[in-house]
Amino acid sequence: MTTHQGEQLTLAEMRSGQSGTVIEVLGGHGLVRRLEALGIRPGKKVTKISSALFRGPVTLRVDNAQVAVGFGMAKKIIVQVDKYLPQTS
Amino acid sequence: MMRILLMGNPNVGKSALFSRLTGTHVIASNYPGTTVGFIKGYLRLGEERAELIDVPGTYTLEPSSKAEEVAVEMLKQGDLVINVVDATNLERNLNLTLQLLERQIPVIVALNMWDDTRHRGISIDAAKLEELLGVPVVPTVGITGQGIRELVKRLPEAKVPKDAPTYANSDERWTRVGDIVRQAQSLSHRHHRWYENLEDASSHPVWGVVIALLVLFATFWFVRFVGEGIISYVADPFFQGLWTPLLMKLSLALGGGGFWHNVLIGELIGGETNYSQSFGLLSTGLYIPFAAVLPYIVSFYLALGILEDVGYLPRLAVLMDTMLHRLGLHGYAIIPTILGFGCNVPGIMATRILESRKQRFIAATLISIGVPCAALQAMIIGLVGQQGVGYVAMVYGSLFISWVIIGLILNRVVKGFNPELLVEIPPYRWPPWRVIGEKLWLRVSGFIKEALPVVLGAVLVVNILYTLGVFDALADIAAPVLTGLWGLPKESVVAILVGFLRKDVAMGMLAPLALTAKQLVISSTVLAMFFPCVATFVVLARELGARDLLKSIGIMIAAVLIMGSLQNLVL
């Protein structure tokens, strides 16, 4: 399974364990500010840790902190996913 | 007097630092939002005394919850800020630091959690950071007290940095933060630690649920085991072996009857004092708080303290989020709810960590109706438990069902919005036993100080009103509801009225009525849901305001009438 280089996904679409760089936060000024205060802003490297069932919150790591964001917010965070090396079988 | 503010992001150890600086013990926990109001203490600065305020944590000076608004409000009244910075998350923390430096107030930085940096592969040059920020920077470890003396020594050096830059927008500020971090911090590679795998597992969709169930089960077991243990090995032997003989001597001295005998010792049952039935100040009045309730207060708060300081609760918030959204709340509402199981008062106060008015109203209402406090639970377990565990489960089941149904309805009816969860998940920490011990002592002594006078007062009032015959009249008035709807004897009106003072005493008053198991289930449920005790009522009024308080109480009365009648029909 490979991921194309430069693929952009929302945080909600990412798989657990995937890392990438935040490109953009779609949404109003309020949301951008709140996420930014927790360290989630364009240019930051993030790793998705898990997502709860039934469109529950997504947990991610940014720097040394773990943050849980609601599913709706996760859909507004656009991430450039790191290139995966093709698995040799 | 100089007023010093302790400010920083949530969960960076402000409260632990506050304890160290002032010698006052306050509650500190490993999750964001422990402090919702502000806490004051004093510290000695050379010859002078200065006031130190533990300000609720905030990520930014643009607040998004009531607790954060408090923080920004406080800033206007301070003379100096100790900015507590989490050294393991320098970048995010410095964003607040730079905002503070723009405010023309002297600042000193406490670089806290210093001990945690090394194993995380972080090395920070504190002197460089000091130079870049233009204000003193002191590495500290709040939990052990390392660096505190240095921090106090350097307090007078706190200053407004010379020509402190102001930033046109937050992007510019972040750029500056990035510059500072690059120059002052270096990172080295390190391995994942075993407990970090556990951290990841506890927010995993499947393993997380399994862990949550195990944790909840273990907590119930622990609370019950420790509580029962203290009752059977400490409290009961003390009361039966030492206290009863003393009371019997007093009884003899008082002539075995009369007004004072009734007030102090109560009625003798078969020639003996009976702690569950006599109802004197010195018999039941002391037995309820010390032997029936206190053991459970100790065991509950010990378990809660461990859960809090390990850092588990925010993970539970993530797992519960989807369900709580249906009730008009989000996952973080689980924290006030769990605090409410100890005492509704701090539970309702903690609803301030929720962002919207709708959430706060729903959370506070649900706590006051559906969440029984530890004192009441101790009595329910003691009294209803005698009839069988199944009956206790019926009480909890009914409360849970009411909690869910009222939440579902309120979510539809109450206007306003319910924002999504956005919360920092703290790292797991090994429980700091000294802190847990201090916190337990604080909460237990708080219970004794606040509850004991009310319990004794309630017992006294009941005795006097009995003597005056007031209750007979009330019983007749209340009979249609009590007997007609709920199938309870009309004498139980006394217990329900006393529930307004103390719910544990109220449960104690049900004991002499010889109720059937079904009646016990109904009366316990009614007591738990009905009018909050006076202390809860006061905070509810303060947090909600008069109008919302009336609405909340209307919901409460409707709910209790319906639930009690349903139980009477179904059981």
Describe it for me?
- Chain A has 2 helices and 6 strands; from the N terminus they run E-E-H-E-E-E-H-E.
- Chain A has helices at 29-37, 71-74; strands at residues 8-10, 19-25, 45-51, 58-62, 65-69, 77-81.
- Helix content of chain A is 15%, strand content 36%.
- Chain A has a single domain, classed as SH3 type barrels.
- Chain B folds into 2 domains: 3-187, Rossmann fold; 208-570, no CATH class.
- Chain B has helices spanning 14-22, 66-75, 90-101, 126-133, 148-154, 170-184, 194-201, 207-253, 259-264, 284-310, 313-326, 334-342, 344-349, 357-370, 374-383, 389-413, 433-468, 470-485, 493-498, 503-510, 517-529, 534-544, 546-570; strands spanning 3-8, 39-45, 48-54, 80-86, 107-112, 122-124, 137-139, 185-187, 422-425.
- In chain B, the strands form 2 sheets. A 6-stranded mixed beta sheet of chain B has the order 2-3-1-4-5-7, with helices on both faces.
- In chain B, strand 2 and strand 3 form a beta hairpin.
- The mean pLDDT of chain B is 90.
- The A-B interface holds A 30, 33-39, 41, 49-57, 59, 63-73 and B 59-60, 62, 64, 88-89, 91-92, 95, 120, 122, 170, 174, 199-200, 203-205, 208, 314, 317-319, 321-322, 330-331, 419-427.
- Strand 5 of chain A pairs antiparallel with strand 9 (422-425) of chain B.
Unreliable spans of chain B? none
Return the CATH topology of chain A. SH3 type barrels
Query: Over all CA atoms, what is the radius of gyration of chain B?
Result: 27 Å
When the domains of chain A are counted, the total is: 1
Total number of helices of chain B: 23
Largest interface: which pair? A-B, 30 and 36 residues
Which structural class matches the secondary elements of chain B?
alpha/beta
